[in-house]
Amino acid sequence: MTDQPTPRDLSRRMLLGSFGAVGAGAALAACSGTSTPPGAAPSSGAFGQGATYSGPKVSLAFWNGFTGGDGPFMKKMVDEFNKANPNVTVSMNTLQWGDYYPKVPTAVASGSGPDVGIMHIDQLATNAARRVIIPLDEIASGLELTEGDFAPVVWNAGVYKDQRYGIPLDIHPLGFYGNTAQLTKAGVDGLPTDRAGFEAAVKALQDKGGVKTPFWVTATWPAHLMFTSLIHQFGGGIYDEEGAKATFNSEAGVEALEWLRGFTQSGASPKNVSNDAQAVAFRQQRNSLTWDGIWMMNEWEKVQGLEWAASAIPTIGDRPAVWASSHNFVVTTQATKDPNKLAASRAFISYISERSIDWAKSGQVPARKSVRESADFTALKVQSTLAEQLPNVVFPPSVPGIGDVTSPTYETAVNEVILGKKPSKAALDEAAKKADKLLADNRSKYQA
């Protein structure tokens, strides 16, 4: 996955929403079924203390999936760390996310993988259960990191079976983008914030703005992420709190999906919008309003003559809510073979986290509170605007295999309904039955 995507990057889109690429064949040994938390926790003191490393020279393999426009930002930060820490050499290896998640477990098992890596929030429990990554409670305490140093939602989402497996780097939510020139022509003052305002803006754009289809609802990406935001806004959720049962076929789920489908039925959206076509249309000024990830801000900036603004996802239901994901630092079991690598990993993670203002420029909201409260971040207009959504972010439960359930279940249901192939309730009910079976299989598979 890149976080500055292109229309051709279908694998990135699918992975960010579902993370289905980590199949059983890529797994290490699953959880043993004992009450002992998974992961090969290092011995006490292995990570050392503080944010610096003063041991002998050591090399760290750092893997991630930042193969797009975000990659140069991270590469620059790694180079700066290496210059500031001559006794640590961090080698950065980037893979497409579709290759990354299957490859990491087997590479770590053979000792040829990363010592430090990046994983998305819904991959932490899976890789902890597979013993690919280790608990980071000691690194957090050594750096004196607590919930108060981060956005609480992302800090708490990094815990699995009472142990921390991720140090959050960022949060990347959906954002709401509007063509301000077209809105002005239609007599709409700013981006709407609620259902009535949004629906009125769509009508005004059609009637006064000369835009036939102002809001394109895709049949694929990012429709299921929009659905995730909306179902929570209507008071529902994708799963129960334990991640043991699908709840997306609730009244809230039907209401959310019917609202989306209404735009294709009314003609405000074309009826068969393919993956990323809405983003292409926004670039070409053929639509006026679009919901997409924060990372798209850098794509809009490249378009000459496009006048646009960003704001939080409008509150269509009774409460604000927004889908988001997060990149987290992880340390693998491979690194536990060398205590110097563990100590150097701590210093590297601390360095990048403290300087994540540079990462924010790639189109991210820093997880670190001190960075978000800085004047430098406030000056980043889009990022700071979309950061206001953090209290409303929703993440999936911390359950192994949760990401593998998305694509064949409610993502498919959303697709079928938007295309007019099935009624909303029937599609969601069918998907929920399939999801419950997959969730049960995962509990058996990971003995969770």
Describe the structure.
Strands 7, 8, 9, 10, 12 and 13 form a 6-stranded mixed sheet that branches. The chain has a 5-stranded mixed sheet with strand order 2-1-3-11-6. A two-stranded antiparallel ribbon has the order 4-5. Helices cover 41% and strands 13% of the residues. It is globular. Mean pLDDT is 90; it is low at 1-41. The protein has 19 helices and 13 strands. It folds into 2 domains: 10-169 and 326-394, D-Maltodextrin-Binding Protein, domain 2 (3-Layer(aba) Sandwich), CATH 3.40.190.10; 174-324 and 406-446, Periplasmic binding protein-like II (D-Maltodextrin-Binding Protein, domain 2). The chain is an alpha+beta fold and 448 residues long.
Detail the poorly predicted runs. Answer: 1-41
Number of strands: 13
Q: Tally the helices: what do you get? A: 19
Overall pLDDT: 90
Question: Which secondary structure elements does this structure contain, and how are they paired or packed?
Answer:
Layout: H1 10-18, E1 58-64, H2 71-84, E2 88-94, H3 97-110, E3 116-120, H4 124-129, H5 137-142, H6 152-157, E4 159-160, E5 163-164, E6 167-168, E7 170-179, H7 180-185, H8 195-207, H9 223-233, H10 251-266, H11 277-283, E8 289-293, H12 297-301, E9 308-311, E10 322-325, E11 327-331, H13 339-354, H14 357-360, E12 365-366, H15 369-372, H16 375-378, H17 381-387, E13 393-394, H18 407-418, H19 424-446
Parallel strand pairs: 1-2, 1-3, 10-13
Antiparallel strand pairs: 3-11, 4-5, 6-11, 7-8, 7-9, 7-10, 7-12
